[in-house]
Design a protein that fits this description.
This protein has 134 residues and is of the alpha/beta class. It has one domain. It has a four-stranded parallel sheet with strand order 3-2-1-4. Helix 2 packs antiparallel against helix 3. 25% of the residues are buried.
């Protein structure tokens, strides 16, 4: 169950959990497989840490987008869980965030820059490529 006093790990959906290899097909169309290792990692994150888990995505702000993410998560978690009940429990414990950026302890995103007090050069910004597109 979500606890308002626990830190939240905020994970981007497309490009981090969902491989997004087909690109945008619509908010409720999620055709691709997970990024390798994503579902096992997500399962461990939910079951073995004290953190709440939130998934953020532009999909979640559109009709049926959040529901499609939950459906996809459940289907993909079934492949790494011991039972339907375990997959449902994990999927239900994950909050789908309907705004971006959400409040969180840490953000895991394929389109991010780790700010350490020094701003990126303009040429870095112009040539930035998410890991899955390199």
């Amino acid at each position: 169950m979500m606890d308002k006093f626990r830190k939240m790990v905020c994970v981007d959906f497309d490009g981090v959990l969902h491989s997004y290899s087909s690109g945008w097909q619509g908010a409720d169309l999620i055709p691709d497989k997970p990024v390798p290792g994503a579902m096992g990692w997500l399962k461990k994150l939910v079951q073995e840490t004290p953190y709440d888990v939130g998934i953020f995505s532009a999909r979640a702000t559109q009709d049926r987008g959040a529901e499609a993410i939950k459906d996809w998560l459940y289907k993909e978690l079934l492949k790494v869980c011991f039972s339907d009940d375990e997959a449902i429990e994990i999927a239900d414990s994950i909050k789908i965030l309907h705004h971006k950026p959400p409040e969180g302890f840490i953000f895991i995103d394929d389109r991010a820059f780790h700010f350490e007090g020094k701003f990126p050069s303009l040429s870095y910004l112009e040539t930035f490529t998410p890991w899955g597109k390199k």
